[in-house]
Design a protein that fits this description.
Elements lengths: L2 E3 L6 E3 L1 E4 L17 H13 L4 E3 L8 H10 L7 E6 L1 E3 L5 E3 L3 H15 L4 E6 L6 H16 L3 E7 L3 H8 L6 E3 L13 H8 L2 E5 L13 H5 L17 H17 L5 H9 L7 E5 L3 H7 L9 H13 L10
Parallel strand pairs: 3-4, 3-12, 4-5, 5-8, 8-9, 9-10, 10-11, 11-12
Antiparallel strand pairs: 1-2, 6-7
Helix pairs in contact: 1-2, 1-10, 3-4, 8-9, 8-11
Length: 327
């Protein structure tokens, strides 16, 4: 699988990374429903054996459980992948999550993640979400830079930051990478964020290229209706009408395009996000080895210029009854 250098780092990552959000399991605010740890470990093994060389997780995923599962999956493996994790989302005794970026909190989070992951240093440590206070953002980023100087993390990045926030923290320490959402139905970063990252040499690792499974080709109205009560997607507008019907129409178009190459809609969705050089890699989540098999070939799949145009033309033409653009 093709590898690309991530920003100013010495990390050369595969086009696809394993996303460990869903393997955090159920019972927390942003869960995907119940998940069996053995299946999660099998999925990680399949991804690594297929060539993926990085895993993206976060302390908040399953309130620490995702990091623990990643550590279990890597026990005894001679070739270890890069491990990326995130901080800044802290939970209380009730399990409620709060965004906190003060320096002491970040230092405590880092120590906890090192213990759960059973590593001496984290390859890429990222602020998960910004907070409203620019002063607190700066304090958090200063703490991140300090952790790097101490050798507890190798490189530092952020997730879900806008250009103003990136500009602010760049004055304190370089930003190796940004992790934003990016898919055919969430394209806000194209206007300002991707150009900013390109100009400033910031690596981009996008998450949810399949829009949380919506563009995978496996999603149906029946499956959406049967989501577990603790699956956060039950409350997402992308999975509700009228967006759901338009999104599934897009999947049908992607299925036609993929069919020409023996590829799935999932592979088309991922290849679309990787079509631009400013995107270093895409995070793709999986809850089973079978799901990994369904997308792994996307790392080497490239859409033609005509196929990209075909998708773009469809998206531009898919309007709501009120004239709102599809994307």
């Amino acid at each position: 699988m093709e590898k690309r250098r991530l920003g100013d780092s010495d990390l050369h990552i595969t086009a696809l990374g394993f996303g460990a959000w869903a393997i955090g399991g159920g019972g927390w605010r942003f869960a995907w429903g119940p998940q069996e740890d053995p299946k999660s470990i099998e999925a990680i093994h399949r991804a690594l054996d297929s060539g993926i060389n990085w895993i993206d997780t976060a302390a908040a995923y399953g309130l620490g459980h995702s990091e623990e599962v990643v550590a279990r999956a890597l026990e005894g493996r001679s070739r270890r992948p890069y491990i990326f994790t995130k901080c800044g989302m802290v939970w209380d005794t009730k399990g409620d999550i709060h965004r906190v970026l003060d320096g002491d909190s970040i230092r405590r989070e880092c120590e906890a993640s090192l213990r759960r992951l059973k590593v001496d240093a984290i390859d890429l440590y990222q602020i998960h979400w910004p907070v409203e206070s620019l002063t607190e953002i700066e304090e958090g980023w200063t703490a991140m830079a300090e952790l790097r100087r101490q050798g507890k993390v190798r490189w530092i990045g952020v997730s879900n930051f806008n250009t103003d926030q990136l500009e602010r923290i760049q004055r304190i320490a370089p930003v190796t990478s940004l992790q934003p959402p990016y898919s055919l139905i969430h394209r806000d970063i194209e206007t300002n964020i991707l150009p900013y990252c390109s100009r400033n040499g910031i690596g981009v690792i996008t998450y949810s290229p399949m829009a949380s499974g919506l563009l995978s080709g496996a999603m149906t109205r029946e499956r959406v209706a049967a989501f577990p009560q603790d699956d956060w997607r039950r409350h997402s507008q992308d999975f509700q009408e009228p967006q759901l019907s338009r999104n599934l129409e897009l999947v049908d178009r992607m299925r036609v395009i993929g069919g020409r190459h023996g590829r799935s809609p999932a592979e088309v969705a991922i290849a679309w996000t990787l079509r631009t050089p400013v995107v270093t890699g895409a995070i793709v989540g999986a809850r089973s080895a079978a799901q990994v098999e369904g997308f792994i070939a996307a790392g080497d799949f490239r859409l033609t210029a005509d196929e990209v145009k075909e998708i773009e033309d469809f998206v531009r033409g898919a309007q709501s009854p009120h004239g709102e653009m599809y994307a």
